[in-house]
Specification:
single chain; 196 residues; mainly alpha; two-stranded antiparallel sheet; 2 strands; 62% helix
C-alpha cells in the first residue's frame, strides 16, 4: 500500500504556537490537515509510525493482518503479565513486603499469589483481545466472556458466603474467573470474523 499522506519534519516545520498539523499547498499557502472522514485512523495521533496497528490494518481492509496484530499483542501481554504472576507465585514477598511486614497479611498475600498469580496471563490475554476487538467493532464475544466471569465470581461468592467458605476457596474462585475470561475471550476472537 502506498501512503496517501507523507509528513516530514512535522515538529521542525510547525510554526510556534500552532497546535495543528499544517502543510504547504502547491500555491504556497499553509493549510491545516483535516482528515477525509471521521474514522479514527485519520486522526493526527494515529498517523505516527507504529500507531494503532489494528485500526490501521482494519482501515486498509487488511482483516487477517489486524487479527495477527491483535494476537501478537495479546501474546506479548500474556507473556509479560503471566511472567510477573509466576514471579510473585514463587516469591510473593517481592510485592507484598513493599506494603507490610504483618505476618498475617503476608501469609494471606502468599496464599493469594499461589492460586491467582499463575492466572494473570489469562487475564492479560483476555483484556488485550478485548481492546483489539473494540477497535474492530466486534465486542459481543469479549463482553460475553466478561459477563460469564462476573456471573461465575458472583455466584461463587454467594455460595462461599452461605457455606462459610475460606480465603483459599475465594482465591481459587478468582483464579477460575481469570482463566474463564481469558479462554472465552480468546475463543470469541478466534471464531469471530473481523471483516466489515
Amino acid at each position: 500500500h502506498q501512503a496517501n499522506l507523507v509528513i516530514q519534519n512535522y515538529y521542525d516545520e510547525t510554526p510556534t504556537g500552532v497546535n495543528a498539523l499544517v502543510g504547504q499547498a502547491e500555491n504556497g499557502s499553509v493549510y491545516s490537515y483535516i482528515p477525509e472522514d471521521a474514522n479514527a485512523a485519520g486522526l493526527i495521533p494515529n498517523l505516527t509510525d507504529g500507531g494503532n496497528l489494528v485500526g490501521m490494518a482494519l482501515g486498509a481492509k487488511m482483516f487477517d493482518r489486524a487479527k495477527r496484530v491483535a494476537w501478537s499483542g495479546a501474546a506479548m501481554s500474556a507473556a509479560l503479565v503471566g511472567s510477573i504472576g509466576v514471579l510473585v507465585t514463587f516469591w510473593p514477598g517481592l510485592w507484598s513486603e513493599l506494603f507490610t511486614v504483618n505476618p498475617n497479611v503476608l501469609a494471606s498475600a502468599s496464599l493469594y499469589f499461589q492460586w491467582v498469580g499463575p492466572c494473570y496471563g489469562f487475564f492479560a490475554l483476555g483484556l488485550c483481545l478485548y481492546f483489539a476487538s473494540q477497535g474492530a467493532g466486534k465486542l459481543w464475544g469479549p463482553v460475553f466472556a466478561g459477563t460469564c466471569r462476573l456471573a461465575m465470581v458472583a455466584a461463587g461468592g454467594v455460595w462461599l458466603t452461605q457455606h462459610e467458605g475460606n480465603a483459599e476457596q475465594m482465591f481459587m474462585l478468582i483464579a477460575l474467573g481469570m482463566v474463564t475470561y481469558g479462554v472465552l475471550t480468546a475463543l470469541a476472537v478466534w471464531k469471530t470474523s473481523w471483516v466489515r
